[in-house]
Amino acid sequence: xxxxxxxxxxxxxxxxxxxxxxxxxxxxxxxxxxxxxxxxxxxxxxxxxxxxxxxxxxxxxxxxxxxxxxxxxxxxxxxxxxxxxxxxxxxxxxxxxxxxxxxxxxxxxxxxxxxxxxxxxxxxxxxxxxxxxxxxxxxxxxxxxxxxxxxxxxxxxxxxxxxxxxxxxxxxxxxxxxxxxxxxxxxxxxxxxxxxxxxxxxxxxxxxxxxxxxxxxxxxxxxxxxxxxxxxxxxxxxxxxxxxxxxxxxxxxxxxxxxxxxxxxxxxxxxxxxxxxxxxxxxxxxxxxxxxxxxxxxxxxxxxxxxxxxxxxxxxxxxxxxxxxxxx
Length: 328
Fold this sequence. Notes:
Blueprint: H1 2-12, H2 27-37, H3 41-50, H4 63-88, E1 91-99, E2 105-114, E3 120-128, H5 135-149, E4 156-160, H6 165-168, H7 174-181, E5 186-187, H8 191-204, H9 207-224, H10 227-237, H11 257-280, H12 286-299, H13 302-324
Helix pairs in contact: 1-4, 2-3, 8-13, 9-12, 10-11, 11-12, 11-13
InterPro entries: DUF4371, RNaseH-like_sf
Domain DUF4371: 15-173
Pfam family, one: DUF4371
């Protein structure tokens, strides 16, 4: 229910360039209404009567109404989650933070509880505005957050965060501070995060591992830096069944590098061909041709493909294990 509501909110919130019914650029909300009106006589009549009347006319078709609908759905879903939590009484919390696209740090708050039919569920409650990374500040923000929702933190029976000192510290970490409000809120480190750290530090221990991932990132940076180069690569890879375009390395989720290795492993021969074509293309800038030639020399060596195959097998195991974790 929560995931469906969030998807609907994200979909509706994509507004178009105008608010004109019949326009091809009026956004998802009006586009959806136009589609439904073809099967709903009442809505069809309403649109015919009130659409495109301009400001000052009540049509209930504007983006303001769309925003009101989104807020209403949010409120309804949240109230339902709160009621389920209060009915279940006991719950656990999961909190993590990450910067959004505008580089503003946000804390994600989710809870777990048991439904009356004994099935466990995990629900997203919302984002906390940036409160810093000090355990004391986060504690106050979380207590106020749950207090505003009407959920008693004394009924918290579990907490799961990453392994950062400010979160997992046994004396001044967030988990120890939450325990002062609920002594039975046992702390369980995020297993997926722990496994992620294992892979990260293991790869950093060897110069071969570091050079390998620098090379894979260099390929992505080179091709993605130009639409024409990306098109050349895409055309080459289209001839390989089940091939995928190169992927960018994720600095935080190490297991996602599985998709990086998979894309190179499946399309290795065509990636080499694309580099060779660019290095020999006289219409390309000299700097581009030299860079393509340098990458070609690095990647046409047999050991590169061997490294890709070995790392792919190792990371696939981590990816599979992480998907099995349900702690966070």
